[in-house]
Structure formats: structure tokens, C-alpha cells
Amino acid sequence: MMSNIIALCGNPTAGKSEVQRILHEKFGYNPIDDGMVLRRFCVENLGLSWDDVMSQEGKKRSTEILGRVWGNRELLGELGKALEGMFGEHILPHIAHLHIKPGARSCFGSVRKTQGHYFRNLGGLVIGVRRPGVGPSQYDFDQFDHSAVHVWLDNNGSIADLERAVEQIYWDRIAVAS
Q1: Angle at 125 (CA atoms; ends 124, 131), nearest 5 degrees
Q2: What distance in Å separates the CA atoms of residue 49 and residue 46, rounded to the nearest whole number?
Q3: Other residues' Cβ atoms within 10 Å of the Cβ of residue 81
Q4: 144-163 per-position pLDDT tens digit
């Protein structure tokens, strides 16, 4: 059966968002942001803008909260770690998964830590995205378990090449399973 769930792992700026966009536009996979609960909390309760929590540039900025200056990426990551400390590392994908329709084609665009295994257990395909010159983040919350990845996609920076690579994975790993 065709996998209705795709999960993307990779370092920040490796191209996961572009892969997610391609999967949506070409194959109808709905983009799911499993960090939306964190982003919404920061915007609605801590005064950050949507750009501060959504864009790579915004995440590089800092925000002062009660006299402490936080990097926006750090703030999002530490909030996620606090939830994971209470419920386990799979809480964010679990929350996001609760909000999708059963059987809907869904692509989770930023899978971290051991979360790839959560999606594997649901029958999903875990794609690792890597790009030359884009190394791991300095933050532990941005790391991911490489053993959860089914297939690697190499992003050389060309959108046309990336589209071809996504299509190849789709036809080789997803469509043949149906």
C-alpha cells in the first residue's frame, strides 16, 4: 500500500521545506508542521512574530523575555524539550498526527531526535535530506537519529535537481508500494 505519511529529517537549511513543497505540489502530500504548537505558543504568549518562528532569518534573531535574551531557535527548541521531558520525545509528532484526517497524504517537514521511528511505526517513509556545506546545528534539539531514515536525498542547491530527486524517490519508494 502507498505510504500516506512521509517524514523529513535533516539539518537546518538542508532543504526539507523545499522537499515538502515539492511533495505537496506534485503528489498531494499535505505539509504538516509538528512544531506548530510551539510556534503558536511563542506568537500568542511570548510576543514573537510569525516571521520570528517560521523563517530561518527570524529564528536567528533574539527575543528578550523577563530580562533574559533568548535566540528564537533556542527558545522554540527548549520549549519542545520541556514538553518532551514531560511526555517523551514523540509528543510533538503525536500531537500533529492527532490533527490529520485518517488516510490523508501528509508530510511532516522537520523530524528530530528519535521521531523518525514514530513515523516508521505508523508505516511512514522517512527521508533524510542532506546538502553539502550544511552541517549539524549547535543545538541538541536539532539532532536526529540517522538510523530512522529509509532513504537519503542529496540536495545540491538546484531546485530542478531537487525536484527530480524527489520524483525519483516517489516513484522508487512510494508509488511501487501501491
Answers
A1: 140
A2: 9
A3: 15
A4: 999 999 999 999 999 999 99
Does residue 85 come out as left (phi exceeding 0), alpha (psi in the -120 to 50 range) or beta?
alpha
Q: How many CA atoms lie within 13 A of 3 on its CB side?
A: 24
Place of cell 520524483: 167
Q: Compute the distance between CA of residue 72 and CA of residue 133 in angstroms, rounded to an integer.
A: 23
pLDDT digits (tens, 9 = 90+) for 81-110: 999 999 999 999 999 999 888 889 999 998
- pLDDT of 27 reads 95
Nearest one of 102, 116, 93, 113 to 32, comparing CA atoms: 93
Other CB atoms within 10 Å distance of the CB of residue 95: 16
Q: How far apart are CA 162 and CA 147, in angstroms?
A: 23
- Which pLDDT band holds residue 63 (cuts at 50, 70, 90)? very high
